[in-house]
């Protein structure tokens, strides 16, 4: 019997919990031809959600392209990644791909290769030295042209959008801003991590994409939705788990999809066939997970300065909403002053160790948070 909980990688319909409202909102945005920035902390389910929404679009009315920007590093690779995704979404044979490439991306040079299963793949290169990428605007205007010529709505998704902040110039952002302004029947959905998109793109009036679209924060999944999801997966595989334990598990994971699935995976492994999960099973699963991470977590801990360790140790003992810059917190944790806490917070935010929600802070990796808690207590 294989473990019914999946963590890491994209989850599809069979392993997807709830997100009904989010799916509805996304579909509406795609229907309306909106520009939407969807953001969350890491591994909260952005890619899975968008891919599910795309797969539900009626094929007769929509065309869509999903562009993963992770491997890109500048305007040139951005332009060819977009051209490739768009072409492959419109055609599946080599001849048709070349025809699409020629008709929409005439400024780029196409090459056809076969992937490991023998299916054709197209890639593009720029004609010039790639430095100025004059083709970028043309590439970004192609979706509107496709919508017109094929008489369909087009949805463009850019995943890992925060990558463009590392391109070294804001040309891509500027070109995007003008390209997305006036394309009819095309919706643009940008996915990215909260910290980058929020701080650098929405709040900064000097950035080209400031207020260029709506923004949509993605949060954790409620315990109410996890209860039937987790319970049925145990039941279907001949094991049982009661609501109290699921509730406790969700409190520990904060309802964060990745950590919830990971913890369920571990609990399921430990639970004997036909048995019921007990509080001890859950504790054992947590210890096991922390043990597996212990080497990495110890290394991370040792990389922190004394003040940073004091701050984190203090943080895990507080309830959410704690005033970490307040005198009480500073004194209790031997942190010298509010300004030294400020420095610690800035550094830890920068390293993605902590994250901010409604003005309070928490350790981003929920298992590392448990590890620190165990150390302190
Ligand atoms: N709706 C869901 N139901 C159940 N599990 C989910 C759901 N969404 C995400 N997950 C869990 O979270 C993990 C990460 O999902 P996904 O890769 O979609 O997140 P992401 O936000 O795109 O991550 P990243 O920030 O790394 O790009 C999945 O492997 C799965 O375990
Ligand atoms: Mg993702």
What does this structure look like?
The protein is an alpha/beta fold. The chain folds into 3 domains: 19-217, 3-Layer(aba) Sandwich (Rossmann fold); 222-303, Helicase, Ruva Protein, domain 3, CATH 1.10.8; 305-377, Arc Repressor Mutant, subunit A. The protein is built from 15 helices and 9 strands. It has helices at 20-32, 46-55, 75-90, 94-104, 136-150, 171-181, 194-202, 223-236, 243-253, 257-270, 279-302, 306-315, 327-332, 338-350, 366-376; strands at residues 35-40, 62-68, 108-114, 120-126, 153-159, 186-193, 214-217, 354-357, 360-363. It has a 5-stranded parallel β-sheet with strand order 2-5-6-1-7, sandwiched between helices. The protein has a two-stranded antiparallel sheet with strand order 3-4. The protein has a two-stranded antiparallel sheet with strand order 8-9. α5 (136-150) packs parallel to α6 and α11 (279-302) crosses α15. The longest helix is centred in the last third of the chain and has 24 residues, at 279-302. It is globular and about 65 Å long. The protein starts with 19 loop residues before the first helix and ends with a helix. The mean pLDDT is 92.
What structural class is derived from the secondary structure elements?
A: alpha/beta
Strand order of the largest sheet: 2-5-6-1-7
* Approximate helicity band: 40-55%
- Main pleated-sheet profile: 5 strands, parallel
Order of helices and strands: HEHEHHEEHEHEHEHHHHHHHEEH
The CATH topology label of the largest domain is Rossmann fold
Indicate the radius of gyration in whole angstroms. Answer: 24 Å
- Uncertain spans, ≥5 residues at pLDDT below 50? none
- Give a count of the beta strands, DSSP E runs of length 2 or more: 9
What best-fitting shape do the alpha-carbon axes yield?
A: globular
Bound molecules: adenosine-5'-triphosphate, magnesium ion
> Could you say how many structural domains there are in total?
3
CATH class label of the largest domain: Alpha Beta
Q: How confident overall, as mean pLDDT? A: 92
CATH superfamily of the largest domain: P-loop containing nucleotide triphosphate hydrolases
First-last Cα distance: 38 Å
Tell me the fraction of residues in β-strands, as a range. Answer: 5-15%
Q: Please give the CATH architecture of the largest domain.
A: 3-Layer(aba) Sandwich
What is the overall number of helices? 15
């Amino acid at each position: 019997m294989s473990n019914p909980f999946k963590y890491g990688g994209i989850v599809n319909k069979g392993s997807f919990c709830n997100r009904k409202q989010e799916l509805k909102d996304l579909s509406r945005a795609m229907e309306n031809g909106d520009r939407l920035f969807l953001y969350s902390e890491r591994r909260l389910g952005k890619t899975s959600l968008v891919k599910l929404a795309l797969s539900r679009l009626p094929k007769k009315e929509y065309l869509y392209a999903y562009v993963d920007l992770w491997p890109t590093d500048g305007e040139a690779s951005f332009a060819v990644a977009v051209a490739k995704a768009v072409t492959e979404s419109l055609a599946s044979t080599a001849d048709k791909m070349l025809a699409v490439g020629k008709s929409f991306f005439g400024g780029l040079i196409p090459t056809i290769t076969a992937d490991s299963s023998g299916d054709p793949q197209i890639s593009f290169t720029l004609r010039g030295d790639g430095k100025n990428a004059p083709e970028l605007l043309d590439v970004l205007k192609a979706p509107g042209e496709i919508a017109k010529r094929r008489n369909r709505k087009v949805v463009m998704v850019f995943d890992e959008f925060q990558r463009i902040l590392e391109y070294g110039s804001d040309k891509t952002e500027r070109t995007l801003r003008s390209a997305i302004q006036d394309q009819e029947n095309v919706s643009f959905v940008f996915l990215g991590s909260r910290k980058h998109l929020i701080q650098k793109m929405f709040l900064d009036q000097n950035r080209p994409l400031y207020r260029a679209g709506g923004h949509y924060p993605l949060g954790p999944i409620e315990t109410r939705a996890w209860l039937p999801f987790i319970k049925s997966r145990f039941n279907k595989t001949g094991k049982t788990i009661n609501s109290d334990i699921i509730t406790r598990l969700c409190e520990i994971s904060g309802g964060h999809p990745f950590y919830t699935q990971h913890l369920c995976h571990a609990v399921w492994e430990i639970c004997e066939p036909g048995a019921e999960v007990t509080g001890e099973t859950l504790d054992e699963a947590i210890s096991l997970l922390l043990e597996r991470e212990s080497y990495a977590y110890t290394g991370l801990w040792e990389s922190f300065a004394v003040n940073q360790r004091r701050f984190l140790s203090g943080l895990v003992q507080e309830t959410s909403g704690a005033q970490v810059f307040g005198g009480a917190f500073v004194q209790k944790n031997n942190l010298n002053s509010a300004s030294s806490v400020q420095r610690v917070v800035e550094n830890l935010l920068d390293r993605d160790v902590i994250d901010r929600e409604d003005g309070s802070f928490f350790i981003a990796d929920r298992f590392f948070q448990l590890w620190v808690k165990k150390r302190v207590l």
